[in-house]
Amino acid sequence: MSSAAKKKLVAVVEDDRGLREQLVKILETAPDVKCIGAFVSAEEALPKIFEKRPDVVLMDIKLPGMSGIQCVTEIKKTVPEMQIIMVTVYEDSERIFRALKAGANGYLVKSSPPEQLLEAIRDVYKGGAPMSSHIARKVVKHFHLIGPSTKEAENISPREREVLDLLSEGFIYKEIGDKLNIGAETVRTYVKNICQKMHVRSRLEAVAKHRSEL
What we know:
- By secondary structure, the chain is an alpha/beta fold.
- The protein is about 55% helix and about 15% strand.
- The protein folds into 2 domains: about 5-135, Response regulator (Rossmann fold); about 145-210, Winged helix-like DNA-binding domain superfamily/Winged helix DNA-binding domain (Arc Repressor Mutant, subunit A, Orthogonal Bundle), CATH 1.10.10.10.
- The protein has 11 helices and 5 strands; from the N terminus they run E-H-E-H-E-H-E-H-E-H-H-H-H-H-H-H.
- Helix 3 links the parallel strand 3 (about 55-60) and strand 4 (about 85-90).
- The relative contact order is 0.11.
């Protein structure tokens, strides 16, 4: 892919120098990805992210000063459509859900292989919700413990249910649109309505909650 305009622009926010450099090297191996900056802290990253508007941000949770979760909240306030993947060593449920509620679109552990990281960037760019498999199990287990909400299920329309089912199967917005003969933007509107009705902040959380009710 020769055109820079077609590349997925990615920013990295990671305070550990070794890990930060490693992430940048992984990004540099992909012909369809361009790293537009790597930052040590949220305070350093935010103005540059707002200026350069990357497609995807790889965000650590534990940062000096403002946390990664707080940084996600600030980004989403200003640029809600920006895609953010948490890339962290933390696997405890509390941090996972704080990140999801802040608006994170994906959650990977730092031990994930390079190709999985690159695929997650491509996935979230297209409307997916990438999660490391054992993180996904933790999320589903959490919702199993809470139990399904009958009221929420009743509020979701048949068409929204179709969209949610396809989203849960891993289809991206364009593929869902093709299957249902509607536009990708219409799918995006359905997903927004689904999130509101399910009282969740992101499609990732909606999918996890839906899977726990199946």
